[in-house]
Amino acid sequence: MLELNKVALLLSFLASLALGQGPVRTRSQSERGRRVALNTFTDTQTTGVTEWTSWFNIDHPGGNGDYERLEAIRFYYRERVCARPMAMEARTTDWVAAADTGEVVHSSLEKGFWCINKEQPHGRVCSNYHVRFQCPPGPPEEMYKHPAHASPAGASVPGAPFRKKGVLQPSMYSQVESMGSMGDVLSDLWGRTQDKETYLCEDLSDSSVCWTACGNPEVWEECMPNHVLHGEVHSVTGVPVAGAWVALASQPKVIRARTDAKGQFRLTGVCSSSSTLISIRKEKFALTTVSTSSNTTGFSWVRAVLKSAEKPYIVKHPEDKVRYEGGRVQLCCKATGSPAPDKYYWYHNGTLLDRKVYKYEEDLVLRNLKLEQSGHYYCKTSSPAGSIKSSPSLLTVIAKGTPACNSTPEAHLIRLPMDCVQPGTDSMYYNAGRCPHNKCAGSLDFDMRCRDGATFCCGVQNMESRIIDCGSYSLPIRAVTQCGCQKCVQPTVLVRGRVVTADNNEPLRFGHIYIGKERVGTTGYQGSFTLQITPDTQRLVVNFVDPTQRFLDTPKVFIFDKKGGSIYHDVKVMRKQTPIDINAGETNSINLGEIKGEDPIGQLVIPPNSFHKDNGEIYEGTVKASVTFIDPRNITTAAAAPGDLNFVDDEGDMLPLRTYGMFSVDFRDESNKEVLGAGAVQVLLDTQHVKMQEHIPKMKLWSLNPDTGVWEEEGDFSTTTTTTGGHGRSKREERTFLIGNMEIRERRLFNLDVPENRRCYVKVRAYMSDKFLPSEQLEGVVISLINLEPKPGYSSNPRAWGRFDSVITGHNGACLPAFCDAQRPDAYTAYVTAMMGGEELEAAPSSPKMNPNIIGVSQPYLDKIDYQRSDHEDPALKKTAFKINLAKPNQNNLDETNGPIYPYQNLIACENAPVDANHFRFFRVEKDKYEYNVVPFEENDLTTWMGDYLSWWPNPQEFRACYIKIKIHGPKEVMVRSRNLGGTHRATKGKLYGIRDIRSTRDMREANASAACVEFKCSGMLFDQAEVDRSLISLLPQGNCRRIGTNSLLHEYLIKHPPVAQNNESHAFNMLAPVDPLGHNYGIYTVTDQNPRVAKEIAIGRCFDGTSDGFSREMKSDTGVALTFSCPERKINRESLFQRLQTNPGQTLSQMARDMRESEGLQMCQEVFSQDLYDDIMSRE
Predict the structure, then answer these.
(1) What distance in Å separates the CA atoms of residue 869 and residue 781, rounded to the nearest whole number?
(2) What is the pLDDT of residue 170?
(3) Which of 152, 674, 857, 1136 has the maximum number of C-beta atoms within 10 A of its C-beta?
(4) Distances from the Cα of 722 to the Cαs of 593, 687, 738, in angstroms?
(5) ∠ at Cα 1000 (997, 1001), nearest 5°?
(6) CA distances from 865 to 788, 790, 841, 901 (A)
(7) Binning pLDDT at 50, 70 and 90, where does residue 3 land?
(8) Largest alpha-carbon pair distance within the chain?
(9) Are the beta carbons of 254 and 248 closer than 8 angstroms?
(10) First to last CA, the chain
(11) Per-residue pLDDT at 1096 exceeds 60
(12) β-strand pairing of 299-306 with 46-47
């Protein structure tokens, strides 16, 4: 019986090879020519005396990666690969060379080619690769192989004439191979039939599909009439994707099928004998291409995963450059996205540059520069998903012969100590000079880099030593006399902060920190973190993830200071809502927003059978559902808002959003372990909470991209009316809802937002004290503005917030974006705060009387703005914020054209506003604090550092702050001074480094006790890093003070580390500062950081707390003390001169006159008291 079957099969085989019979198709010469012409990528090449094999693809990138192992290829394709390949080529199935994909790949002529998913940057997955090998020439064994194993190109054998191939049914051929000796006969017969000019393809009723797949010039294979390709399409979270378009990659515009509700599709007439590329796409998803697998059973399966389309995002911005006239420059731009951006455009001062003239792509090269080419340049890139613009870069072209830097220093006033008054001028300021803050054109080793190898700035060329006469004593100072162009100091840029919950400040302990898909750190036990930023960073997006899943994943867009140093951010995260149990087979509604006594803002409606597992399987049973809503009606949640509430429009501009609430979902199975996905859901928004009716038609659904921090549109809302009973209502009423449909494709945060075009800028400055002196402006202060909407109509309910923005102050303050309105001054209001290194600054007061000179805004605009500090109505409240109406200025009213609110198009006017223009003010609460450096240095601008032996900070890359804790016994706070001189270094011995003054802080827990944390000059290497200097420190409390205690450990350390400073006077303490970083047990607090202000703030916090690792703003005078002084209040035995002058001025002056005449005569009396003062006092009597 078996032999009969073999004979029958042989007869069938011979019949299929007969000319003119069966499914035989003869091709014309023109068809063959057209085929070869279109097949430029896959024709087998002959190089010298070698030849290439066909392409092999035996694996796909699912699982661990794509492994095209040579051993496995030989197993499947037997003798098609030579024993020792001479070369190998790898390409993706989209014909991209492996070297051009940017992926990490491996290859070996002994092992083959492989790509591992976990090695790919940014969480990417390997592409689908196929490979071919270069072999020495040999007998034409390629002509005798299984047709299913032929090259996709069906290419000719090198060195032999082009010959067509008869095509055998794969199922038939597999039976032939199993026939033993008869199979050998058939194989031989098959080889001899290769000279036939025939090509077989089954005659299908729908031949267009067959020949689209089989007769396409890119494919030389059989098309089976009954072969069915079954496909399944899911999102990255396993959600079935319905309505996706399926096409052949060779004809992507011809839609062959669409996925059903389960994400499945069916495609007939696709070749089964080798892989065929299938293209799948859907709106809001990135196009994907998958390869079918070889199959001989009449049908096969393919599974595709669609990733959400991502708008382009700039990852490399053009940088500021300075060049001389006639030079050249290269500006670079690069964007990422899904699909990848494919078009770039360059603009100069807003004008599109002609691509034909400048011949640019990602990079713009300008040669033979002219002066008129100075200005701002930016790039714009586009993809099918959208557009994006880069940050502008400033190109400065300097005329030939012009100095790169002005050699004359500009004025820079240094404030002198309180007891230093210069005779003749009575001024407490001295002009020490400084060089301007600008870049210059230096000498580059190569001028055509995206980022110059070195940057040049105007810096100090020469300094001279001067002496300041303070009357009773003198102060040395190093003043700038000449500036020049030199390499810029490259400071370290840091972002620091603490992550705590918005409800009770519980720290996020050991949370994971991500930038993009890369984990870059972990928060500490107290939630603290430090991030070092690369100099070319323009937009910093950091994602905080709680590994315990108790808090929401929170992406934050951090602002930072490019001039160096560290910015402190107090990061708030939301606690996840407690899960509730819901039935997956029923319709479920979950309220969004729970404010006591008020209706929810909306609802999340989940249809039945919407939950699924990661593999796409429908989940049935109980679901643990946690939906956390960030309610804008609760102003305390504003700081927890993720991202920066911006979106990118179709033109590539980043624009603001106004939120009506955000929510995050977390669905898990009954065991609370496996994360579940959800398909299409409905979002309902109650329009009663939208107080601005013009926002209703513009409302949209958005989701936050955690990698870019940008909100992306998910869908629109439609309006519906329903009858319902509201909260606390006794009767039912009609309510209007906005209904939006969305698909929860990934674990993102979602938002109910409207784009808002009524925008302004608010000018704010920060100062060292409440004197508000222009020379005492503070840089690096984080100013935050919360936009509030109109009152919702309930007196007990505060205004809801709609937006949160932060900006860092520069040398000319800060301009904060805000929503404003020209028709109604109170349509939008703002709540503004300021923070510096974790310290809250105080706002200018508004009570008991509104003073325009203190607030910084003139009348009548001040009344229109309605400025109020946070303690305006309740003195018990903090003074660290103010509230204003955001009344858009009327440009026809002169009183409103000078700030502090500027129209959105007047940003440059806001940034360049003079210091006497209207602005809002903050100041540091620590008034009794003073610092003097012999070598001037601005700690908020690290580029002002100068290498000098007397520099307080000897190293611009590392700053070490040292503090000593001094306790004061006495009823009053006392000023304490540290005088810091060189101690052991030959270049600085006996010379002053600087002076520090600080007033002691009252300990609220102990009567008649206060303490001071006094900074002193740390011992260590000086700027030349050649020799250590033990700084000589003198600590002097001001007043009637006597030292009564010294920390025993500190005393022992100083004795064991000579030389020992003399301490013969009880009213002071002298020491040679320790080189070692002693801790709180010694009363010494030392912190090293890349930023001086951060180092000082951390050290002060530890000093206040009296520990080596804690932090406090409340003084604890009983722990961690180094020195103790008793400063009793002096007892007054008789009335002072001032008291006697007040009680009996005539008698007092007469007695004084007699005493003076008796001692030195009338002349002395006239020197002490002028006649004017005498007459004034006598007249008052």
Answers:
(1) 19
(2) 36
(3) 857
(4) 20, 12, 11
(5) 135
(6) 14, 14, 21, 9
(7) very low
(8) 153
(9) yes
(10) 144
(11) yes
(12) unpaired
476 CB-contact burial (10 Å; exposed 0-12 / middle 13-18 / buried 19+): middle
Contact 1075/1043 with Cβ under 8 angstroms? no
State the DSSP code for 167: -
Summarize pLDDT for 250-298 with one digit per residue, the tens: 888 888 889 988 888 888 776 655 567 888 988 878 888 888 765 555 5
For 715, residues 6+ apart whose C-beta sits below 8 A from its C-beta are: 700, 701, 740, 741, 742
Q: pLDDT at position 756, please?
A: 66
Helix axes 1171-1180, 1145-1159, angle to 10 degrees: 150
- What is the residue whose two structure tokens read 């794509």? 66
Query: Is pLDDT of 416 > 80?
Result: yes
H-helix or E-strand spanning residue 676 = strand 675-678
- Mean per-residue pLDDT for 957-981? 91
Contact between 1013 and 1101 under an 8 Å Cβ cutoff? The reply is no
**pTM, whole model, 2 decimals?**
0.66
Q: What are the boundaries of each domain within the chain?
A: 51-135, 228-306, 310-398, 413-487, 494-573, 580-723+734-755, 762-923, 933-1126
DSSP symbol at 775: G
Cis amide bond preceding 339, omega within 30: yes
| Strands 759-767 and 920-923, bridge-based pairing | parallel
What are 1039's two structure tokens?
């007043």
CA 217 to CA 239: how far, in whole Å? 36
SS3 384: coil
Q: What is the pLDDT of residue 707?
A: 82
pLDDT mean across residues, the chain = 77
The correct answer on CATH 2.60.220 for the domain covering 580-723+734-755 is yes
Percent of the chain topping pLDDT 90: 16
- All residues at 6 or more sequence positions from 545 whose CB lies less than 8 Å from its CB, including other chains: 511, 512, 513, 514, 553
Beta strands (DSSP E) in 1000-1083 are: 1001-1002, 1009-1016, 1020-1021, 1028-1029, 1032-1037, 1042-1046, 1069-1072
Q: What is the 3-state secondary structure (H, E, C) of 204-234?
A: CCCHHHHHHHCCCCCCCCCCCCCCEEEEEEE
Task: State the Cα–Cα distance between residues 276 and 270, nearest whole angstrom.
Answer: 7
DSSP symbols for 39-74 = -TTTSPPEETTEEE---B----SSTTEEEEEHHHHH
- Mean pLDDT for the stretch of residues 398-418: 86
CB 714 within 8 Å of CB 742? yes
CATH topology of domain 228-306: Immunoglobulin-like (2.60.40)
Q: Which structure tokens are listed for 833?
A: 């705060």
Equal CATH topology for 310-398 and 580-723+734-755: no
Choosing among 3.30.190.20, 2.60.40.10, 3.30.530.20, 3.40.50.300, the CATH entry for 310-398 is: 2.60.40.10
Element (H, E) at 127: none
Token pair for 622:
């109980």
Q: Which CATH number fits domain 494-573: 2.60.40.1120, 1.10.3210.10, 3.40.50.11720, 1.10.150.120?
A: 2.60.40.1120
User: What average pLDDT score do residues 624-635 get?
Assistant: 85
Instruction: Give the pLDDT band of residue 189 (cuts 50, 70, 90).
Output: very low
Q: Report the alpha-carbon distance of residue 445 to residue 454 in Å, rounded.
A: 9
In whole angstroms, give the CA distance from residue 978 to residue 1015. 7
- Does 968 score more than 90 pLDDT? yes
Which backbone phi and psi does 471 adopt, to 5 degrees? 90, -85
Helix (H, G, I), strand (E, B) or coil at 768: coil
888-914 pLDDT, tens digit per residue, is: 888 888 888 888 999 888 888 898 899
